[in-house]
Amino acid sequence: MPPFSTCSRAQVKLDLSAHIPRLRAFALSFCGSADQADDLVQETLVRAWSHRDSFIEGNLSAWLFTILRNVYFSQYRKGKREIPDIDGIHASTLAVAPGQTSHMDMLDFRIALARLPASQREALLLVGAAGHSYIEVAEICGCAVGTIKSRVNRARQALAEMLRIDPLPDLIETTDATGRKPHRETEHCADPPAQP
């Protein structure tokens, strides 16, 4: 994407608003509340708009997700929440009993997702839900690509364990009898490679 300085105001607004659904989904994973997620996305877009001149040609999505992440860690994580509810008393008054089992499955998933360490949850959602590449997520999170791959893999393993489902074989690192990971080329071969 070209720098915003070469785009019209209308085009910048259009480009920013196209990212709202994915930003909202990611914000919801941080906040757990739709209202707080909307506030986080709004603050992200306000900051992106006010700093649009600092956007350099490149990946707008990664830039926006980085802003959202930074806003969250600087404001929301420091306890600047609207309703302090340490004991969960207020939250329990808002709960509505689900009417369908699929809702319960989703609730189980959200609970399991919330139990993941923040770094694993963040990596998994950026790769799996937001559709970013490992390289983009590494850039957003400010760490190595291998670290992101590891976090995503561990998150998938932990979710599978918490939800009591069989993980897909390619999501979990396998080892041979010696405890070493097999080479990709020989992983699916019928006959193991000859040992010298």
TrEMBL record:
Source organism phylogeny: Bacteria, Pseudomonadati, Pseudomonadota, Alphaproteobacteria, Hyphomicrobiales
UniProt organism field: Rhodoblastus sphagnicola
Xref: Gene3D superfamilies: 1.10.1740.10, Winged helix-like DNA-binding domain superfamily/Winged helix DNA-binding domain (1.10.10.10)
Organism superkingdom: Bacteria
Residues in RNA polymerase sigma factor 70 region 4 type domain copies: 112-159
Keyword Oxidoreductase part of the UniProt annotation: no
Region feature (Disordered): 173-196
MF annotations from Gene Ontology: DNA binding; sigma factor activity
Entry protein name: RNA polymerase sigma factor
InterPro entries attached to this UniProt entry: RNA_pol_sigma-70-like, RNA_pol_sigma-70_dom, RNA_pol_sigma70_ECF_CS, RNA_pol_sigma70_r2, RNA_pol_sigma70_r4_t2, RNA_pol_sigma_r2, RNA_pol_sigma_r3/r4-like, WH-like_DNA-bd_sf
A biological process from GO: DNA-templated transcription initiation
